[in-house]
Write a structure and sequence with these properties.
This protein has 488 residues and is α/β, with parallel strands linked by helices. Helices cover 40% and strands 20% of the residues. It folds into two domains: 231 residues, Nucleotidyltransferase, domain 5 (2-Layer Sandwich); 225 residues, ATPase, nucleotide binding domain (Nucleotidyltransferase, domain 5). The strands form six sheets. It has a seven-stranded mixed β-sheet with strand order 17-18-16-15-19-20-21, with helices on both faces. α15 crosses α16, α15 packs across α19 and α17 packs across α18.
């Protein structure tokens, strides 16, 4: 008998509802509903339009119902952002976007309350000003009365789960993005929370990936005229759902999850937290089966996405395929950028910022659209190599193949540049890694699949993987030397 499950995948720029149909041999994807996820700025504050997103979830459920009965729902989102509920369970305000400037200066401010080395030693998290810890510190510093009204903090996937079920919880993988979790104990670090002056009572109970949270509420079932089904707390950080779709057979493997953000790392039994990993600012996140995921978080296709938006604003309507074609025709190795430079984080004129960055670093200035897109692709690939070498140095292992998943695998240019820059084979796919990881973990939770190993084998049977072999000349080594001299 076929099993149908429903996945909601929220990214930083859009979301979708996807059905997974499992026939015992493979899993078939069916797109039900797709919608945009654009922030809304009001009086200088950038918010997520969470009520609109919940409306879109309901539309996805209705469209799923039209296709046939489904047995469960899973939700994954980006990390770090949250909503605060009051004592009555009412959302106090729309969640604030991680790109909002309220966290400016909060990372350095935190070191006045907790020693930086001790902070990393406990959490094992990469220091990024967008992290939940620094968002909350900003509230504590600038809006203490608002924080005092908060009874429960729910990270984004947990907030949507609460809206569906009324149950408050914190899924392990998403909680591990906050910089408030003890990486070794896999529980909230009340030491860090207290040191930062944050209220302990707002943090809900942590549940493991694959936990059945509860049925959809009676009110929503009546509203949508649907039968009640379980909501499964999948690996609700989208990176960890994507990791489930990595088709590696070897125990030790390296992956790149490439979308708006790029995450490059490996799966371990225990976190690596030492002087070297802190020096390289590598994070330890929680994965399925209580695994530790040792990875580097960096800006990814945001640079392409936001550049395209700028060109559209200028009246130049290019699809992503058009941009890739222009990049292939452009001169290579003209100039490079550091994708993680702070000027590239906010919305705005990314092409203009790239030109200004190249001018400031005494490099040739890319003028054409193709030159800018090529600059982004080559810079990302070279940044991947730096992260690869740092991770190999910390783990003491060499990874012969890079397993690349997510939307970035649709760019043949980026996949080939990655193989060339890193001098490794790239196994690219599946594109829909996050959705597949979400779906298969629901099937694991229901007992239809035996575990995560079997889930990965199922995905490998169901999806096409493209192989890119390194095709290097001395120009890539020369380019890497230039890149390191500029940004290391």
């Amino acid at each position: 008998m076929e099993k149908r499950v429903l996945a909601f995948d929220f990214g930083a720029s859009g979301g979708r509802a996807m059905a997974g149909i499992y026939n015992g041999e493979k899993i078939i994807l069916e797109e039900l509903h797709r919608f945009s996820n654009e922030p809304v700025t009001v009086r200088g504050v950038m918010y997520w339009d969470v009520l609109r997103l919940f409306y879109e979830m309901k539309q996805g459920i209705l469209k799923g119902k039209q296709k046939g009965r489904f047995q469960s729902i899973g939700i994954d989102t980006w990390g770090v952002d949250f909503g605060l509920l009051d004592k009555d369970g009412t959302l106090l305000e729309n969640p604030v976007h991680y790109r909002d400037n309220r966290t400016k200066g909060m990372l350095e401010k935190s070191f006045e309350y907790i020693d930086k080395e001790k902070f990393y030693e406990i959490t094992g998290n990469q220091f990024m000003e967008i992290n939940t810890a620094f968002q909350l510190l900003s509230l504590s510093q600038n809006r203490p009365e608002f924080l005092e009204r908060g009874k429960t903090l729910l990270l984004m996937p947990d907030l949507f789960t609460y809206m569906l079920t009324g149950v408050k919880s914190a899924e392990y993988s998403i909680a591990s993005t906050t910089q408030l979790l003890d990486a070794r104990k896999r529980s909230w670090s009340y030491y860090v929370i207290e040191k930062l002056g944050l209220p302990k009572h707002i943090f809900p109970t942590i549940v493991q990936s694959g936990t059945k949270i509860g049925p959809i509420s009676k009110e929503i079932c009546q509203e949508l005229i649907i039968d009640s089904v379980d909501v499964i707390s999948v690996a609700s950080h989208d990176t960890q759902s994507a990791l489930l779709a990595v088709t590696a057979k070897e125990k030790d493997f390296l992956f790149i999850s490439c979308g708006t953000w790029s995450l490059i790392g490996t799966e371990l039994e225990e976190p690596i937290i030492n002087e070297k990993s802190q020096k390289y600012n590598i994070t330890n996140e929680g994965g399925c089966d209580k695994k530790a995921v040792f990875l580097k978080n960096m800006i990814g296709l945001w640079l392409i996405q936001e550049s395209r938006r700028q060109w559209i604003r200028e009246g130049k309507e290019y699809g992503f395929g058009d941009l890739e074609k222009l990049a292939k025709e452009a001169r290579g190795f003209l100039s490079f950028v550091d994708p993680d430079a702070p000027e590239f984080v906010p919305q705005g004129d990314i092409p203009g910022k790239i030109r200004e960055f190249c001018k400031k670093t005494n490099q040739p200035v890319p003028e054409t659209i193709g030159e800018i897109v090529r600059c982004i692709h080559e810079s990302l690939a070279l940044k991947y190599r730096i992260a690869l070498e740092e991770i190999e140095e910390c783990t003491g292992k060499k990874y012969e193949t890079i397993y690349m998943v997510g939307g970035g695998t649709q760019s043949k240019l980026l996949c080939q540049c990655t193989a060339n820059a890193c001098n490794r084979t790239v196994a690219a796919g599946p594109v829909e890694a996050t959705v597949l990881g979400n779906l298969v973990l629901q099937l694991v939770a229901s007992g239809d699949i035996g575990g995560t190993k079997e889930a990965r084998e199922l995905i490998a049977q169901s999806q096409k993987i493209n192989i890119y072999e390194p095709n290097r000349g001395g120009e890539w080594e020369e380019a890497y030397g230039r890149f390191k001299s500029l940004f290391m």
